[in-house]
Amino acid sequence: MFALADCNNFFASCERVFRPDLEGRPVIVLSNNDGCAVARSNEAKALGIKIGEPLFKIRDIVERNGVAVFSSNYALYGDMSRRVQEVLRDFAPAVEQYSIDESFLDLRGLAVEDLAAYARRIAAVCRKMTGIPLSVGVAPTKTLAKIASKLCKKYPKLEGGCYMHRPEDIEKVLRKFPVEDVWGIGRRSVRKLAQMGVVTAWDYTRLKEYDVRKIFALPGWRTWRELRGEPCIGFEDMVEPRQTICVSRSFAKEITDMTDLCSQTATFAESAAAKLRKQDSLALEMAVFAMTNRFHEDEPQAFSSRLTVFPDGTDDYRTVVVAAAEVTRAMFSRRYGYKKAGVIFTRVASREGFTRSLFRDADADMREARLSEALDGIAASYGRGAVLFGVQGDGSVKMSQEYQSPHYSTLWSDIPKVKIG
Ligand SMILES: [Mg+2]
User: Fold this and answer.
1) 245-392: CATH architecture
2) Confidence band (pLDDT; 50, 70, 90) for 97?
3) In the chain, what percentage of residues exceed pLDDT 70?
């Protein structure tokens, strides 16, 4: 059996942990630059606030109903996610984090008699230890576990735990479950499925195996088998290293100063390199881009980008940071106000099995590797941004975050104070 543990309304729930006064009140969290709602508490959903809705469009609802509005606070969410992971690890021999608020648990070989009670207990313990409400779905395959966890959200009576295993129960659920909400069914397949008259997940399982393989190829076939209760998405299959890595942001205010823009792209390059190193890969190519605000039609527009090639591959912080700053200087023009920039490693190779040129300077390589390792070590103990390259400036990204909550759990200065007596 597999379990999927999904945090309910994760960002909104994180904000509530340290603000118990918000219990029962509508809460929304905004995207970067306070653009639109990216997370909503149940109360906010009930008010009809849609995901992705811009703040200016819902100002009315927000004011009339006293909706608590937060800028995103990823330091807080990342830390809460880590705490949830810690709790989950006590319940299963293997835990695989799928996204910031979702993890799969491998329950195979676990001697538990009542899996429904076990799922409820995971949710209850997580709530108690971290304050975050969870939905835990348990089923014979990962795809079915995802569906089971959605049932928890729909039916509060389940108390956060749903064990879905009897074929007749699975059929009943799949008959009502829209096929486009099934994990692994891509948006492109949905149109094809509609043409074939496939509306529910159950309809999909009734297709002929031969047709599924022919029309939806291997991934669609895998989903088909998973829905029919045959596990075929294993625990390691999911962690394929990414083939491209991108870090980009829109800025709160347009950037018109070259040094400022360089500090931004250098910082993006540094965080992209951190991701690269985490998955043990090398970058062979790096694109740096900067663009103006396309909504300001009356102002001069530009989309500039530069490609840097690393023929021998690199995962060295200094190399990519320096290169990013250099090309930014080369493409910067004072004519423009830059609204967005980013760094993309457009070609990535696994470090293992990659042969570097024979004529490299081994000593220089060693020094490079040591410096980057030292930087990783410092980041692990003191957080990212504890040490910066000069070109990064203060290392902050110029986003607007008017409504951000304090860093309750990651900054000493923001730790909640308790008055006793
Ligand atoms: Mg969630």
Assistant:
1) 2-Layer Sandwich (3.30)
2) confident
3) 96
- The pTM for the full model equals 0.66
Alpha carbon distance, N-terminus to C-terminus of the chain: 49
Question: Distance between CA atoms of 342 and 267, rounded to whole angstroms?
Answer: 10
Give dist(CA 154, CA 147) in Å, integer.
Answer: 11
Q: Which of 182-191, 333-342, 411-420 has the lowest mean pLDDT?
A: 411-420
Separation of CA 420 and ligand 1 centre (Å): 35
Q: How far is the CA of 10 from the centre of ligand 1 (A)?
A: 5
Residue 187 gets the label, from left (phi > 0), alpha (psi -120 to 50) or beta, of: alpha
The pLDDT of residue 393:
87
Displacement of CA 412 from its chain's centroid (Å): 26
Domain limits, the chain: 1-165, 180-238, 245-392
Per residue in 324-353, pLDDT tens? Answer: 999 999 999 998 899 889 998 988 888 877
Neighbours of 213 (CB within 10 A): 14
CA of 7 to the centre of ligand 1 (A): 4
* Helix pair 317-331, 258-278: axis angle to 10 deg: 150
How many residues are recorded in the chain? 421
Pick 180-238's CATH classification: 1.20.1300, 1.10.10, 1.10.150, 3.40.50.
Answer: 1.10.150
| Ligand 1 center from residue 274 Cα (angstroms) | 25
Question: In this structure, what are the phi and psi dihedrals at residue 253, rounded to the nearest 5 degrees?
Answer: -120, 145
- How far is the centre of ligand 1, averaged over its atoms, from the C-alpha of 6 (Å)? 5
